[in-house]
Sequence to fold (938 residues):
Amino acid sequence: MSNTPDTPVYVTDALIAEDIDAYLAGHEKKSLLRFITCGSVDDGKSTLIGRLLYDSKMIFEDQLAALEADSKRVGTQGQEIDFALLVDGLAAEREQGITIDVAYRFFTTEKRKFIVADTPGHEQYTRNMVTGASTADLAVILIDARKGVLTQTRRHSFLAHLLGIRHIVLAVNKMDLVGYDKAVFDRITLAYRAFASEIGITNFTAIPISGFKGDNITALSDNTPWFKGPALIEHLENVEIGSAADEAKPFRMPVQWVNRPNLDFRGFSGQLATGKVRSGDAVRILPSGKTTTVSRIVTLDGDLEEAVAGQSVTLTLADEVDCSRGDVIATADNPPEAADQFEATLVWMADEAMIPGRAYWLKLATQTVSATVQAPKYEINVNTLDHLAAKTLELNGIGVTQLSTDKPIVFEPYADNHALGGFILIDKLTNATVAAGMLHFSLRRAQNVHWQATDIDRDMRADLKNQRPALLWFTGLSGSGKSTIANLVEKKLHRMNRHSFLLDGDNVRHGLNRDLGFTEADRIENIRRVGEVAKLMTDAGLIVITAFISPFRAERDMVRGMLPEGEFVEVFIDTPLAEAEKRDVKGLYKKARAGQLKNFTGIDSPYEAPETPEIRIDTTAMTPEEAADMIIDRLLG
Amino acid sequence: MTDTLTHLDRLEAESIHIMREVMADAAKPVMLYSVGKDSAVMLHLARKAFYPSPPPFPLLHVDTTWKFKAMYELRDRMATESGMDLIVYQNPEAKERGINPFDHGPLHTDMWKTEGLKQALDLHGFDVAFGGARRDEEKSRAKERIFSFRTSTHGWDPKKQRPELWNLYNARKAKGESIRVFPISNWTELDIWQYIARENIPIVPLYFAAPRPTVERDGLLLMVDDDRFPLLPGETPVERSVRFRTLGCYPLTGAVESEAKTLSEVIQEMLLTTTSERQGRIIDKDGGDASMEKKKQEGYF
Fold:
C-alpha cells in the first residue's frame, strides 16, 4: 500500500499486549460521542469514515484483503485502496457508487468511543440526514477544497443547526488536491463563516484534511505546517458531550412502563430525559399535576441513591398517585407545561404529501396522541433559506406550521429539551413515519382553557328524551343509496317518537361549510366540522344521521374518536362500483368518466371501505325499506 | 472533562429503553435466544429492564439439532434462572428429511434457521421478535433499523424501513406484519465482551480455550462435538487448544487455536487478532458479497 498513513498515535496496541486488564480498566471509563458526517456526493464522506475505521484498527485482515481486491475491481482510486468501499453497504448502492441511507459505524480511540452516522448528501435524502442528526452531538460538514461552499453545504449546515447540534466541524477535504494551499483553506473558512452566522451557527471548528491521504486526521500533518490544530480526532475526543448539559437541567422522566410484579410493588420505568433524581425528592406527575416524593430508585443491581439524565431506571413513589405510560415525572417546583396547540417545525419524510386537517398520530417521548396539522405558515427553502408560501409539505419539505392535539401533552420547547420537544408523526392508515417535528412553543396554555362545567349534563338531556344518543355515520360510494336509506331511517325514527337530526352534506355546504371547496384538505375539514356539529348534537341527546361519501378511513376514525365509546355507528352502504355507476342517479359517473369531474370517488379518487363497520348494508340483496328496518333494529335493539 | 455515564452505561440504558418501548405496542413479543454471547447480553438486559418483574415475554430457540452440546446445557440453565418460558422450535420438515450440514450445504441453514424461524413466529403468532444482531457485524447490518419491519411473509424491504429519530420508535403495524427489534444494534463486539466481564454474565464455556477434539477441513478447524460427525478417509480428530469466537451449528463453526482461558485473555486476543468475527462462519460466504443482505430479504434474521 503506497498510502499507509503515519502510525496512528492513539492505538494502544502495546498496552493491550502487555497489560490487558489495565487497558480494559481504561477503556471501560471511556465516554461516548455520537456524530454525523455530511457532505455532497463526491466530498469523500465514505472515504473519511473508512479512514477513521482503518486508522483506529477497526478493519481486520480479512476485510482488508477483501477491500484490496474490491478496490482493484470496482474502486475509483486506481490501484490504491478505496476506503469508501468499506462503508457502502447495500448491494444496490455499491453498483451506483453512492450511499443512499443512514449507516452507523463504530470506532474507539484512547479517550472515547464513537458512533458515526454516515448520512447521504443527495437533495432527495434530507430525510436521512435529519434522522442521523437527531441523535448526534456533533456534525462534520465536509467540503471539497476544490469546490468550496456549495448549496449542499448550506443545506447540511442548516439541517444540523435545525436539529440542535451544538458542535459543528468544517472539514475542508481533499487538501492534497489543492497542494495543501493555506489560501484555499482560509477562503473557504471565511465564506463559511459568513453563511453560518446568517443561520445562527456562532461557533465552528475548521480543519484542513485529506481523508484519502490521512492528513490532520489522527495527528497534525507535515503537509500543512500553517495549521495549528486540532487534528480531527483530537477535536472529537475533547468536545463536550451533550449529556453534561442535560444533567444540569431540571429533572424529567417520561414514564414508559408501569412495573407491577405483585400487589406490593408498583414502579414506574423510564429513561431520565434531563436532570437528576434522588430518593426523597419531591416530584410532580404531569399532566395531572399531583405531587409526591420518590421512595426508591430500583435496579437489578440494587437501589440507587441518585440517577442522572440518560439512565434507565424504575422509580417507586411514596403515595398512590395515578401515573401511567405517557405521563412525565418531573421535579415538583419546576415542572414542564401541558398544552394542545403548538407552533412547530416539520420535516416531511413520506412520499405522500402532508394533508392539512388530517389526523395523524403524534409521538412525543412516551405520549401518543391524535394530532391535526394546519397548512404551513411557510416552507423553508433549504438552499436559500427563503420563506415560501406553501399549502402543504412534500417529501423532504421543511416548514413551520401549527398543530393541535386531541388532548394536552406534556412538552418543552425543542431548543430546551430534545426529549420533550422532538416528535414524529405517523400515518394512521399506513403506519409509516411521515414527519419529524420540533416544537417551538404552545399557542395557548391548555390548562387555562377549562371545560365549563354545566349543571345539566348529556345524560340528563338524553334521559329527558327517553333515548340513547348515537351518530349513524353513513358511508359509501356516490349513488350507493346513502341519502335514500338515511332519509327512511329518520322517518321511521320520527314515527317512533325519537328525536333525530339528519345532517345533509349539501345543506351543510350552504352554511357552516360555505367557505370550503373540494380539495383534499377542504374535504377533510368538511368532515371534521360535521363531526364536531354531530358531537354537539349527541351531547344534546339527539340521534344524529349523516350521509357523506367520506371515502377515507382516517377521517371516519377521526370522528369516531371524538365521540364516547359506542356512540359512533358506522353504516357501510355497500354497493359495488359497477352497480352504483349503472344507477348513476345524478349523471355524475358519466361526467367523471368523460373527464369533466376530477377527483371523483371510485373513478380517479380512492374509496377506502370500512374494515369492520358496525352495520353493513348490501344493497344488491335488500330493498331500502328492509335496510332501514335493519339499521333501526340494530340501533334500538 | 468528566462524564457521569460511561459508554457501556449509555448502551445499557439505550437497550433497556428499547425493550420497554416494545411493550407499549406489542401484542405478543418474544426474544430470540441463540445461546451465543450476544443472546446472553440481551437476556441480561431484559432482566434489568423489567426488574423486579421477570421479562414479560418468552425465549424462543430456533434449534437445528446441530448446536454444540454445551449450548444446550447453558440454554436450559438460563431459562430456569431467568424464570422465563423457553420455547424450542425445530422445523418438522427438516427433521423428517434429516437435513444436516454435512449432506445438504446451504439448505441446512435455509430450512432449519430461516424457515424454522418463520414457522415458529407464525405458529405462535408473535408480532415482535427481539434479535441480537449488531450493526458492527457486517456491512448491510450497519444500515438496519433498530425496529425492522417485515411483511406478512417475513420479507425485508430496505426501501420501506421507517426513519428512526431521537429515541422515538414507531412500532405500529398492520395485521400480519411483524417487527424484528435489535436492542443491541449499537454495541460492538468489544462492548459485548466488556459488558459480560463487568456484569459477570454466564456464557457458553466454548468461548474459552480448552483442549478439544478437532479436524481441519476446508481451511476451518471443526470440533468433533458428537459421533454424528462423519470423518473423511484419513481424518482423525486431533486434540488442540481451541476456542470459538462465534457459536452456531458445530459442523459450520470454525474454531481458532488459542490459549485464552479467561475473559481478559479472550478480549486481549480479540483486540490483537487480525480477522473479523464472522470469518469463522461459512454462512456469509454463500452467494458472494451481498450474501447477508440477500438472506435478510428472504427472512433470515
